[in-house]
Amino acid sequence: MTISTSGLHHVTAIAGDPQRNADFYLRTLGLRMVKTTVNFDDPGTYHLYYGDEVGRPGTLMTFFPFHGAPPGKHGNGQATATAFSVPEQSIGWWQRHLNEAGVEVSRVQNREGEDALTFQDPDGLVLSLVAHPHPDPRAPWDNGVVPAEHGIRGLHSVTLSVDSEEDTAEMLGGMGITFSGQEGNRLRFAAGSGGPGAFVDVVVRPGAERGLVASGTVHHVAWRAPDESTQAAWRSELVDSGVSVTSVLDRQYFRSIYFREPGGTLLEIATDEPGFTADEPLLELGRALKLPPWLEPNREQIEATLPRLDLPSENNPERLAS
């Protein structure tokens, strides 16, 4: 393929209780709720977007929280870990902060020259905080809960678990995500010039049990396309190469196409445009339930179905208005 991605756009996972999910990602991890909406394919379920102040591509973690969802199973054929980027000097602070929040966290581990902490969210989703040796230029969301000097800068990487790496590596290479190193059975690939937000690790585990996508697991991994024309050209190239790809879907804040990589993980190519201020101003991001035009006539029914969700005041501090 002739079109390449510049890095991760977002990661979407399945959760259980939406209030518990929001409390963890807003208060414990210090992200911002940049959009409160619904799963467009199942509008009786929230779709919650967390990211930086604006919800820039590459900072986004999103969830479909299903009340009573059964636990998933981590295994081959899925993304088994999601990592966020933090400053190099902040690992100790995060270790203390997570312990104080009652989160069981690993010892500091070093992979690919980067220190990392690994833990799980309340639904069992595997997360890491990774300190890249070079400064991450992305600005954190300064919400007063997590000090800005320690704040999450955005996504760092995802980990895919596969039986065999050859076909997965070939597809990644065709997306401009190229091999950059290996430690044991862990292969690192990087989009563009690499760096936090552009990495994907592929862990090879021949014959390991297959995963089951449900609560506490990743649903899909999205990669960036700058605009709709690039996405359309990319879709044509995928189809021409024999990949089964969805039609272009309107996700209101970006346009999407979906397909599976040979190892089994569902991938998405999402446009950078139009972004999360398309239907509400920056200062009010995430406060109100936003619906796309085709679901707006059903607002009363949808709101009656969804559980109540309370956002902490830190999601929109008054100082932003000054």
Summarize the model shown.
The protein has 322 residues and is α+β, with helices and mostly antiparallel strands. It contains 5 helices and 16 strands. The protein has one domain (8-321): 2,3-Dihydroxybiphenyl 1,2-Dioxygenase, domain 1 (Roll).
General description of the model:
The protein has 322 residues and is of the alpha+beta class. The protein has one domain (8-321): 2,3-Dihydroxybiphenyl 1,2-Dioxygenase, domain 1 (Roll), CATH 3.10.180. The chain is 16% helix and 33% strand. The protein contains 5 helices and 16 strands. The protein has helices at residues 18-28, 91-100, 166-174, 228-240, 299-305, and strands spanning 8-15, 32-39, 42-51, 60-65, 78-86, 109-111, 114-120, 126-131, 154-162, 177-183, 186-191, 199-204, 218-225, 249-250, 255-260, 266-271. The protein has an 8-stranded mixed sheet with strand order 2-3-4-1-13-16-15-14. An 8-stranded mixed sheet has the order 6-7-8-5-9-12-11-10, covered by helices on one side. The protein is globular, with a radius of gyration of 19 Å. The mean pLDDT is 94.
Strand residues, percent: 25-35%
User: Which spans have pLDDT < 50 for at least 5 consecutive residues?
Assistant: none
What is the helix/strand order? EHEEEEHEEEEHEEEEHEEEH
What's the end-to-end separation, in Å? 47 Å
Domain VOC: 7-132, 154-272
Pfam families: Glyoxalase
Organism: Actinopolyspora saharensis
InterPro entries: Extradiol_RC_dioxygenase, Glyas_Bleomycin-R_OHBP_Dase, Glyas_Fos-R_dOase_dom, VOC_core
